[in-house]
Amino acid sequence: MNLVTYMSQLGQRLGCIYVPKCTAFKTESRQNVKGAVFGVRRGYLLALACTQIGRNRGLSLLVRHPKSTAGAQTAGVQIKEALKNRPGFSSFFGKKNINATEDSVLITWSFSVTKTKLDDVVNVVDAAVEEVSKYAPAFAGKCEDCGVAEANEFILMNGLPGYHCSSCQMRIAAEKQREADEYRARDANYVVGLAVGLMAAAAAGSVWGWLIGLMEADSGKWSPKLHAFMAILVSLPICWLMFKAMGKRDRVGQALAVVLTLAAKWWGDAIYFTHVDMHVGHQAFSWQLVADVLRHFFDYKLYDGWHKFVTAADVLLSFAVPWMPWAAVPKFEQLFQTINPDGTLTQTMAQMTDAL
Ligand SMILES: [Zn+2]
């Protein structure tokens, strides 16, 4: 049975809807595989999905309950303990991870579609809901933000199920919009940013050049793959320090990050080539030697096929820096969606606000 069939059958068994195009559990390290199943069980909101963390596939179950009740802060901890100690629960699937917050419990098991019976999953979902119900009340048809307005249909807020009335949706979206506007209006300090960026680039490039020079130059061997990948690592401290000094990430800063990354990598390469020449010519280090290398820099960089490969990788990776997490412009995103009976999604109101 393939995963799509498995998930839609699981949805039917639980009285839930399978939404193939949802990424409810997506984080920087965790991927959602083939959508998620959403629904209500005894008044609690469920989200169930196959997730991938690194190379490990897991089954993730999210049970949501309202947070604005007395004792809700400790409920999460109590639920986590109760689930750990529940007979039968601990043996299910073996390796698992329970994460409880003030309004939800997230359980992830290692998981194999071919080996896990639907009945077992349904049983374990019911067990989790039962345990949660001992410590936290179910949703009772009210908006979970204001607690006043009626909300009988759950919706997805950035992929997570919840009850949000339309005026609260508008208020939350407006808040996000204001955050985005404030960020956009902020002044970036390019002068300080550039100064810090230049120093960081000089330092990061020098560290790379000296280290690889000491590691490789004397042996006469080199690892082109390591050299090809290094621009990414070099960009990390440069971006981190420069954007901190600049106070904001924007397109100008990203353009500087590209140039500084490439300059830093190639400055390091020049030091590395100097070390290679020192080894070949039995010479001591001198800035005169570095200057000679810099004069013929592209003769070194385009020396043979592997050198050309590294040079191309340097350029490509430097231009990819604006898409790296440490250089990307922040997004202020608030997405509200309703789930249709056929498992498609409709946007209720959307704020896809780029900070630019
Ligand atoms: Zn509300």
Notes on the structure:
The protein has 356 residues and is α+β, with helices and mostly antiparallel strands. It has two domains: 3-164, Yope Regulator, Chain: A (2-Layer Sandwich), CATH 3.30.1460; 185-323, no CATH class. It is built from ten helices and ten strands. A six-stranded antiparallel β-sheet has the order 1-2-3-4-6-5, covered by helices on one side. A four-stranded antiparallel β-sheet has the order 8-7-9-10, with helices on one face. A hairpin with a 2-residue loop joins strand 3 (44-53) and strand 4. Helix 7 (251-281) packs across helix 8 (287-295). The longest helix is centred in the last third of the chain and has 31 residues, at 251-281. The two termini are 45 Å apart. The chain binds zinc ion. Zinc ion binds at residues 143, 145-146, 149, 165, 167-168.
Distance between the termini: 45 Å
Tell me the number of strands: 10
Form type: elongated
Main pleated-sheet profile: 6 strands, antiparallel
Spatial extent as radius of gyration? 27 Å
Average pLDDT metric: 88
- Count of DSSP H/I helices: 10
Spell out which ligands are present.
zinc ion
Strand proportion: 15-25%
- CATH second-level architecture of the largest domain: 2-Layer Sandwich
With strands numbered from the N-terminus, the spatial order across the biggest sheet is: 1-2-3-4-6-5
Question: What's the CATH C level of the largest domain?
Answer: Alpha Beta
Strand/helix succession: HEEEEHEEHEEHHHHHHHEE
* CATH structural fold name of the largest domain: Yope Regulator, Chain: A
Classify the secondary structure makeup into a structural class: alpha+beta
- Poorly predicted regions are 350-356
Number of domains: 2
Helix content: 40-55%
